Amino acid sequence: MRVHKKRMSIPAAGVLVLCLAAAAHGQTGLFFDEFGGSYKSTAMGQAFTAVADDYSAAYYNPAGLSQIQGIFENATGYIYARPDVTAHFPGNSTIDIHGQPSSRGMFTGIASSLDIEQTTRVFPWFRRFSFGLVTWMNLPEINQYHAGPITSRPHFLRHDMRFQLLALVVSAGFEVTPWFSVGAGIMPSVDSVADQDNFAATNKFEDILMGQRLSIHQTAKVFTVPVFGILIKPPFAGLEDKLALGVSYRGENKAHTGKGPLNQVIGMEDENGEPISGIYYPPVLTINLISFAPRQVTVGLAAKPLDGLTLAYDMTWKSWSRYETYLEQAPNPAFEDTYTHRVGAEYVWRPAFPARFLEKISKVCLRAGY
Hints:
By secondary structure, the protein is mainly beta. Helix content is 5%, strand content 47%. The protein contains four helices and 19 strands. The strands form three sheets. The chain has a 15-stranded mixed beta sheet that branches. The chain has a two-stranded antiparallel ribbon with strand order 3-4. The longest helix has 6 residues, at 117-122.
């Protein structure tokens, strides 16, 4: 087994400007959409599709995982976000939400080039593969939310404190040629179904619950959302290290919480608590919450005009026209598809400090994004 010795690197991410702009058409409820998948991508305003050179490429562009050099790279951190939200609606007053929703918790990222000597000795083509994973865990509460209908709130899902329960992306990249890579991955999500039966006994007024008998059977199923990407570095005129083009696709993520039929009966029960008669109401469908993240396509460009300087630009199309409220009805008027533009920059400085206690700082990174 090869042992790689590397100097200790302490990246100091000085975020000059950090403004994660989101269209007022909706908040997706997916943490990576709103606040990013890593400290680097977040600081660059998430203009990361053509950069994609750390574990968060698993979300932004799986093809970028082919740039991973280490057999094992890991990052773990804590994020606290407290944004200000302003929404404008025709015929309604402006809604200002200061400090809500706030989110906090742990993120972990893992990446590997899979260039393991014992494996590539038998399967040389295996060195072309790479792997990446990024996950987010809400802490200390796992899941907390507030949904309408409230006239003073927007149509879209509004999490007061937390994002959807499962935020995880697992992807793999493959280097087809030194200048062309492809990648794919999955985002697991949870769909919850509940069957509810409610019986109210009118002859049990002395009962502290007024004769209410509620039975709930709830199940949760995991489904996956696909993620695809390509990364191209022009193999001519010396541009392979100066210019990159990235394209990524992510499928629609529409998860329900507590969706299912509700059967209600009002009647009488005997001394043993067994129903003896009643009026049956027509079954209704209950939906406590829908978490919606639209399908999207992103095209990104990255350039390195100077040594140590990276400039990036992303344009993302999101299919918000397919959005439905938690009652599974399209808003009137329906949402429009959106185009989001992001720009980012990174400057890497290698200081070579003479002082002994600073000599292990091999680089300092200054990042900005919008």
